[in-house]
Amino acid sequence: MNTCLSDLDDLSKYEVIRLAFNHKLKYKSKLGLSKKIKFGVEIEALGTDFIRKIRDNKNIYYFEGYPSSKPKDIYGKDRWILYSDDSLYDEDSFDVRPPRCEIEDLWYEKKITTEEYKDMLHNYYNGGEVASPILKDNFEDWNKIKKMLKYMKKTIPDLRINESCSTHNHFDIEIFDNNPELLYNFIILLAENENVLTRFYSGEYINIRSITDEWANPIKPLIRYGLDFNIDKSSYRALIKSIYFGNPTMKEYSFDFWEIYNGYYKHLSNTFENRLPNGTLSKEIIQNNVMLMGFLMEYASSGMYDVERGIYNLKSDNNCDILGPFYVADMLPNDDLKLDFLSQYYKDGRVTKSKQLVKSKRIFY
Q1: What pLDDT, on the 0 to 100 scale, is given for residue 331?
Q2: What b-and-e string marks burial along 126-151, b requiring 16 or more CB atoms within 10 Å of the CB?
Q3: Global pTM?
């Protein structure tokens, strides 16, 4: 069934919320996404000797340099990509290690050998990032995520996440058929509903990590401000350039379309990144995160999204309330997926102003 939740009376809506509180996420073999939806998952985590313990796995390609200096063809390899990430920190070692820039300087100045440099980098973090190959919505690819998480948990006994970790997703935008108008509508959809999406992408926590102030700034103010100017929709690149006012690198945004403008990486030049999701080691939450964004892309590409309403709401101060998520839920194609979304959105019903991550008291997966 595909019930229009927004049309329900108030009593029925609260019954749906009750169902959401009791709903459990199940890991599915397939979601029903369009074949045009391709995606990637980045798993950031901490654990003693993280890189050393998993770098020799035949399904993992270990890249030893900075993530920003990855080879252009790296995403064409059908393997997971492992590298250190200087946005991660471990409270137990953060105050005793030397700044990474000092290690880099020693190597550039040839005061240490390349092997010594690599060894110092291996020990620099108790963590790292594992990025998936390009994936599709099928049993084989969902099983890749399941097996990788299982392997990481088994190989790194103290595997964990904290405030510095995230689980970013990349999505190919083929579904918009090279139509900048449809991509623009999708960006408006994301900005209009950013408050709702932020709570959802908090995952098993009831708040988003505070480090998003640095790495995933809200895109809503940027888009709302840009509505007062002429948006160039002659091409994807022109659209993104005009939205970012010609300076796409000035901030890391919650929904980052920089690669469309940049075009450096061949396999990323037609993609955007969802930088909101908190770190997680739950396969159910990772799948649910992909589910929501994938179907929102389909909804925007179908022409059903009311972009004029979205622009109107952007210009007003539409904060999410207890029933606001029903609007987003109605963009999903069936009732089961709507409950998956609402369950992760409502969590245990609590809110917090804490700057520290607060875990939901309810396990919804």
Answers
A1: 97
A2: bbbbbbbbbbbbeeebbebbeebbeb
A3: 0.90
